Amino acid sequence: MGKNLDARDMTNTKAKAATARRQSLAIRARGFVSSRLRLQGTAIAHEDTLVMSPVKLPGAGHARKLDEKASSLWRKTKCFFSQLALTKEDETAYFEPKTWAFWRGIIMYFFLFSVVGHWMEIPYCLSMDALFGIVDADYAIFLDELYVPYWVYGAGAAAITILLLPLKIRLVGRRKTMWGAALEFFVMAVVLCAALECIMGWIVNQPDAAILGVTAVEDELVMEHPYWDNSQLPLNIFQQAWLVNDIFLGLVTLGYVWFAFPFCQKFCKLIGDKTADGLFWAVIAVFAIICVLTYAL
Questions:
Q1: Can you tell me the distance from the alpha carbon of 282 to that of 3, in angstroms, rounded to the nearest whole number?
Q2: Which among 9, 49, 74, 181 is placed 20 to 30 Å from 86, CA to CA?
Q3: Are 85 and 258 in contact (CB under 8 A)?
Q4: What pLDDT is recorded for position 88?
Q5: pLDDT by residue (tens digit) across 209-256?
Q6: Where are the beta strands (DSSP E) in the chain?
Q7: Three-state secondary structure readout of 165-229
Q8: Is the pTM of this model over 0.85?
Q9: CA-CA distance, 272 to 275, in Å (whole number)?
Q10: Which candidate, 201, 120, 127, places its Cα nearest to that of 153?
Q11: Rounded average pLDDT over 103-118
Q12: Which of 192, 188, 194 is nearest to 236 (CA)?
């Protein structure tokens, strides 16, 4: 009887030891699986949706912060550029001759468009030569370096801002639609450009046989114009102005007064006076370098 009890106790002891070992192994297995799941993310099937638990890897928090910063920067950039969209209020603003912001813009755009005007004349001359054959191959626009300033365009940008910006503001206030105001402005700009071209031609571009001599062409004496000659072109005006050229200048005037100037002024307003002043001095410095390259070297 005693031997049976001892055998039964030993059996129970062995069974308990085996159970303990199994439990220990199970705990260790669960710990191993849990650690692997924490590293790789836990996939939980919920109905038809697979939901992944956050992956807690070293550096994940830093990556999240970078992503949040990038998202914030994108939102701010998008908001900034959305604010640059021109409104009707912008088209009637920015003529403030008593403020530094206005004259800062006038001076800065004078320098900028002295160079940009040079670039704009290249495709214009190429197209006019292709259509009418009126541009000589040795014309300065094809020979000068791209950084060479053409001062007339800078002066023109400053002049039309001071003279035509108030006209635009009055037209916008008077017309029911922006399109109507823009069309009337364009027509008036073309007429003004033609008038100025004629006046300038009568003053400085009169043919002078005593100075330039005359050329015999088919038994006729033809006096040459000193600067430009539109007398043989269709749609010329008093042999001095040319309607095609005046239409082009009218479009440029429209684009500058209605889009370029208010856009640039609004940009300077959004970035703040301190940053805009820094941009102003940067433009001055770059243009000074351009002048040295053009005239001193």
A1: 105
A2: 74
A3: no
A4: 80
A5: 544 444 544 445 556 666 667 777 788 888 788 899 899 999 999 999
A6: 43-46, 49-52, 214-217, 220-223, 236-237, 241-242
A7: HHHHHHHHHHCCCHHHHHHHHHHHHHHHHHHHHHHHHHHHCCCCHHHHCEEEECCEEEECCCCCC
A8: no
A9: 6
A10: 120
A11: 94
A12: 194
What tokens does 251 get?
Answer: 């479009």
Structure tokens that stand for 255 in this block: 């684009």
What is the identity of the amino acid at 31?
G
Band of residue 59 on the pLDDT scale cut at 50, 70, 90? low
Which residue bears the tokens 């035509």? 164
Tokens of 56: 């807690």
Specify the amino acid at residue 245. Answer: N
**Please, are residues 276 and 103 in contact by the beta-carbon 8 Å criterion?**
no
Q: Tokens for 86, please give them.
A: 């021109």
